[in-house]
TrEMBL record:
This is Amino acid transporter transmembrane domain-containing protein. It comes from Xylaria bambusicola. Belongs to the amino acid/polyamine transporter 2 family. Keywords: Membrane, Transmembrane, Transmembrane helix. It comes from the Eukaryota. One of its GO terms (cellular component) is membrane. It is found in: Membrane. InterPro entries: AA_transpt_TM. Its main location: membrane. The chain crosses the membrane at residues 58-79, 85-112, 133-160, 166-185, 197-218, 245-266, 278-300, 320-339, 360-381, 387-413, 425-451. It is a multi-pass membrane protein.
């Protein structure tokens, strides 16, 4: 698609000053009868005015930070363990390959949004590609995926609280505290108002991660290494089984699986044409961070790396690191509750005044959405004995399938009937089909690896108790 065509179709959001009847507040005002109100028309949200929430108020810098925060969390701390399974060289090559493929997928989100401004979330893509079946399947996958990620965020916060307080309370209480805090912050109406929290979250989580990275570099040995003379047993090339290898690859994909959220983020940008700039900053920063942290921590810890890696440098550094990471973990939980709640809310009130005006119905339904998502995520996280394995399964099944296959289909949808087919067109058809096929393989194989992991874990430990009081930071 030529750049000129993109520019012509990219910005269907217009601003206009409309004369809106006013409610007379005084005799002088009643003589005028009208006040001038700034109104923005958006293809998703409808008429946006100063009387309601401004859904289109995220700048390109805030967009980049929101993107980074949807991806950088405790997932980054599983990368050294993935390198331990795959070996350092294959691990880095696979990580960079995944970064390149997901960058293209994320880029397609911005291109598709410019060409189809009415698209708000991935379920709209499903409707355009596969009709009503696609609408419901993609919408259910999006909601379920982020509900499980929200549950994972709550457990991450409970681990941090246990680590900092040295198990100062029952873990079930800490999970409930995390759910309450996540509900309160996720109820902020717009991503524009949440973006400042993303700044806090990304800075604190990176500070915690680099603290551990430095600590393992200056210490003689990792915390779990045996007594006596010790040297790192890192491997340049690993020798895993297929199930172990594909599970490690899935964990790397999960670290980049923020793609489904990017539809909602670009929908709240002031200028969606700046999306690509934000994306490149996000992907470069995230990839560089993953490589630096994964390489250094694995090089110094070898097979004795903890997963998550915050526990690799000993109890004291673990407490410090989790203390630093607490705000970042809270912001992650906030975002992954807000996104599915906003999805349900927008679908509930599309075309209605209750979407864009601060009516009583607006507030009741908005709080109902955030509360409902929070409660479901809390119950799933606390009540399922094999939740850790289940989140890996959901990540492999839904996170992978929403980060690859739809984007290949999106390119074909917009370009298959294009006239004047060139060599570039044939190459892009091949590449899009390759993305679809490889994404399908990774989805199926990753799901298989996760199921094998769940079975092995359950056979070894029997799973965890529902609403357990046990210290869940001991293993990390």
């Amino acid at each position: 698609m030529p750049a000129s065509s993109l520019n012509m179709n990219s910005d269907k959001v217009t601003k206009s000053s409309e004369l809106t009847p006013a409610r007379p507040a005084s005799m002088e005002e009643s003589k005028v009868g009208y006040i001038e109100v700034e109104v923005t028309h958006d293809a998703v949200f409808g008429e946006i005015s100063e009387d309601g929430p401004n859904y289109r108020n995220v700048g390109w810098v805030g967009t980049a930070v929101l993107m980074m925060k949807t991806q950088i969390g405790l997932g980054v701390l599983s990368i050294p363990d993935a390198f331990n399974v795959l070996g350092l060289i294959p691990g880095i090559i696979i990580l960079i390959s995944i970064a390149c493929f997901t960058t293209w997928s994320n880029y397609m989100v911005g291109v598709f949004k410019l060409l189809h401004p009415e698209v708000y979330s991935i379920d709209d893509v499903g409707r355009m590609l596969f009709g009503r079946v696609g609408l419901w399947c993609f919408g259910a996958a999006y909601t379920l995926f982020f509900i499980f990620v929200a549950g994972s965020g709550m457990l991450g916060l409970s681990i941090a609280l246990n680590a900092v307080s040295v198990h100062g309370a029952c873990t079930a209480i800490f999970v409930a505290v995390a759910a309450i805090a996540g509900f309160g912050l996720s109820s902020i109406q717009t991503l524009g108002r949440i973006s400042w929290l993303a700044w806090v979250g990304i800075s604190t989580i990176l500070t915690a991660i680099f603290t551990v990275t430095i600590a393992v570099g200056v210490q003689d040995r990792p915390a779990d290494a045996p007594d006596g003379p010790w040297a790192s047993d890192y491997k340049l090339v690993g020798n895993p089984s297929f199930a172990e290898a594909i599970t490690a690859v899935s964990s790397l994909i999960f670290s980049f699986a923020g793609t489904p959220a990017f539809f909602a983020i670009v929908s709240e940008m002031r200028d969606p044409k700046m999306y690509t700039r934000s994306l490149l900053i996000c992907q470069f920063t995230v990839t560089a961070t993953y490589i630096i942290i994964g390489t250094i921590v694995y090089y110094f810890c070898g097979s004795y790396v903890a997963s998550p890696a915050l526990g690799s440098a000993g109890p004291l550094v673990k407490r410090i690191a989790y203390g630093l990471a607490l705000p970042g973990l809270l912001v992650t939980t906030t975002l992954v509750i807000h996104l599915p709640a906003k999805f349900v809310f927008v679908r509930m009130w599309t075309g209605s005044q209750h979407l864009v005006e601060n009516t009583l119905t607006h507030w009741i339904s908005w709080f109902g959405c955030t509360f409902g998502i929070t409660v479901i995520a809390y119950v799933i996280a606390s009540g399922i004995p094999v939740f850790g394995g289940l989140i890996s399964l959901i990540g492999a099944l839904l996170g992978t399938s929403m980060s690859f296959q739809p984007m290949g289909c999106m390119w074909l949808y917009d370009n298959w009937c294009k006239k004047g087919r060139t060599l570039h067109w044939y190459w892009m058809v091949f590449f899009s089909v390759f993305i679809i096929v490889s994404g399908t393989f990774l989805t199926i194989a990753g799901t298989y690896g996760s199921i094998v992991g769940i079975i092995n874990s359950y056979n070894e430990s029997g799973g965890s108790a529902a609403w357990s009081c046990a210290d869940n930071s001991n293993s990390v």
